[in-house]
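Sample entry (263 residues):
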Amino acid sequence: MRIATWNVNSIRSRIDRVTDWVSRHDVDVLAIQETKCREDQFPTLELSAMGYEVAHFGVNQWNGVAVLSRVGLEDVATSFAPDQPTFGDPAMVEPRAIGATCGGVRIWSLYVPNGRELGDPHYAYKLAWLERLRASAHQWLADDPDAQISLMGDWNVAPHDEDVWDIGVFDQHTHVSEPERAAFAAIVDEGYADVVRPHAPGPGVYTYWDYQRLRFPKKEGMRIDFALTSPALAQRVDHAWIDREERKGKGASDHVPVVLEIS
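Predicted structure, serialized as tokens:
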């Protein structure tokens, strides 16, 4: 089974690239982030015609997450906890997490809050969001140590210095701060493995390049998209890879797909 995650940065703008990519690479399940559309705007018909079931959570032109599956789509949830942190005025559970069971694997498509700036209310929200995710992830394994779980998506955290092109550029910025890295590491410490890194080691291996300042041709990227899997699922990962080629060409997202091949 081939499972992937991809921040597409607007599904309506990139539906042709998505349908072409999943077809070329024979993808069974795709976790999507930043759909940037309401439920009624999601291009379900195009994907259904290809044999995919669709679960989507989106409320406006911001955020939005989805799971596409051709191996079953069951037990859909649009939050990972009843008390998932909220944001905004009025406060709301933003469309940043959706879970579904696909082919026996519990897939969570996650779009972790950006944080904006150190000290910003959105930064505190990001840390609270990650901590609540950690607590939920802990409980899932406590309830079933053999659970097949993949926490995948855009984490908006670069956990190691090698995950950015120049750590000095990020001094006093989000994504590399110690609290953010500690929050990411806490989920790993719960038993969820970064199963892609052993197959695609850095430095210089990235998943995101900003549209500004020619970041992609200059190879100035960040590694912020991850798949953290439960111990039982990690044992089934035969191979994993990052499709850097998908950043090329007209209409590319600023992120690229990250792929797991599961026995």
